[in-house]
């Protein structure tokens, strides 16, 4: 549609509301406000209008303000305390120094509407604008109690520092990426976003959830809020807050059962390997005979491991590398004396093994040499010496509990 036809027919425009669900109570905590226009008897999305860079920002602001006004009126009539998620782009917000947005909200504040119920959504792409000015404007909005959400997070990993500086209340993660063919690197991005969210006190909202798997992914990766057609499509009225409670609860219950089974199976491996090495301690005769000890242990891990070695409590390797090649264990003495204490969590893990006298299984990580995803099982041979057994990828792949 022609932008002039849209701006000139505000009476044919109204908001649609897509529910946002809580992972805590499985109820609706708010609605994202989406623009719709009646075009020849058919309600159509205004997404193309708002995303068209050729449309003047003043036009978008006028339509957005019209939609916002109706949405707040609707939710106040409904006597609901739910949040309203409002989309804005940076250029539109910064018109007239950002005051237009506040001025549109002020009449409702005077009628008792709390601005803490407004969640202002910007996209990560908006960071390409004048970020410092945008940051100052959003800080100003925060003083009114307005919450800030950043949409499409992870689109640019270089923006993590800006996200940290901005400290939004909510980070919105697009579940559609899981349907792409090349989503392997997305796991690392989600992990980074999860860590960042914890540090800045932000909640993760997974949007575009369209099936049970994507809901599981959101749940498993710490999503506090869920949104998508699988749970609720946009509509022109507000729903019963607990309309999808039974669906979400049944799904989450199945996720919990599955996760418990996976953890239990993984712990079985840990206990098995721990006992195996505990039994092998009769062969441990101190650091000077470390290679001799490994000669006896390797056969116990023919199927699971591709490499093992021993370090002292300072991270210095006191044995050769024992590497399995073509079903034979090959000794690599040139590695003797290298130091691995620089690795993240290395010293932490050794101190925990010493304190609890138990073996530990690492998280999945990419091996520097093989570039494959591996885990390492480590075990205290004494208070000062520790064996490290690298679990090969094909064994991990065959056992789902080690992949998760």
TrEMBL record:
Residues 1-248 form the EAL domain. Coiled coil: none annotated. SUPFAM superfamilies: EAL domain-like, Sensory domain-like. Pfam families: EAL (PF00563), YkuI_C (PF10388). One of its GO terms (molecular function) is cyclic-guanylate-specific phosphodiesterase activity. It comes from the Bacteria. InterPro entries: Cyclic-di-GMP_PDE-like, EAL_dom, EAL_sf, Sensor-like_sf, YkuI_C. This is Diguanylate cyclase. It comes from Pontibacillus marinus BH030004 = DSM 16465.
């Amino acid at each position: 549609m022609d932008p002039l036809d849209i701006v000139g027919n505000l009476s044919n425009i109204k908001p649609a509301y897509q529910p946002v669900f809580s992972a805590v109570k499985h109820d609706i905590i708010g609605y994202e406000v989406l623009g719709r226009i009646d075009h020849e008897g058919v309600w159509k999305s205004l997404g193309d209008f708002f995303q068209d860079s050729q449309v003047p920002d003043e036009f978008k602001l006028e339509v957005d303000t019209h939609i916002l006004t109706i949405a707040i009126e609707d939710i106040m009539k409904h006597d609901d305390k739910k949040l309203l998620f409002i989309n804005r782009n940076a250029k539109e917000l910064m018109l007239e120094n950002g005051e237009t947005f506040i001025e549109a909200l002020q009449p409702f504040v005077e009628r008792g509407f709390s601005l803490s119920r407004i969640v202002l959504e910007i996209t990560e792409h908006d960071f390409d604008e004048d970020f410092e000015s945008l940051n100052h404007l959003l800080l100003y909005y925060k003083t009114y109690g307005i919450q800030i959400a950043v949409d499409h997070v992870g689109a640019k990993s270089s923006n993590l520092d800006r996200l940290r500086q901005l400290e939004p209340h909510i980070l919105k993660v697009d579940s559609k990426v899981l349907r792409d063919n090349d989503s392997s690197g997305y796991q690392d991005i989600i992990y980074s976003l999860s860590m960042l969210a914890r540090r800045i006190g932000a909640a993760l909202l997974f949007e575009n959830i369209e099936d049970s798997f994507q809901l599981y992914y959101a749940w498993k990766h710490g999503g506090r809020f869920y949104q998508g057609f699988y749970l609720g499509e946009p509509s022109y009225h507000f729903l019963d807050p607990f309309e999808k409670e039974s669906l979400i609860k049944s799904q989450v219950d199945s996720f919990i059962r599955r996760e418990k089974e996976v953890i239990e199976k993984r712990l079985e491996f840990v206990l098995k390997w721990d006992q195996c090495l505990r039994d092998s301690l009769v062969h441990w005769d101190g650091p000077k005979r470390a290679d001799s000890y490994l000669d006896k242990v390797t056969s116990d891990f023919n199927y699971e491991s591709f490499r093992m070695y021993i370090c002292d409590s300072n991270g210095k390797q006191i044995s050769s590398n024992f590497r399995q090649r073509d079903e034979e264990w090959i000794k690599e003495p040139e590695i003797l004396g290298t130091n691995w204490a620089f690795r993240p969590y290395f010293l932490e893990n050794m101190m925990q093994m010493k304190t609890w006298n138990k073996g530990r299984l690492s998280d999945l990580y990419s091996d520097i040499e093989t570039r494959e995803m591996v885990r390492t099982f480590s075990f205290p041979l004494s208070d000062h010496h520790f064996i490290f057994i690298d679990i090969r990828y094909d064994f991990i792949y065959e056992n789902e509990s080690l992949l998760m």
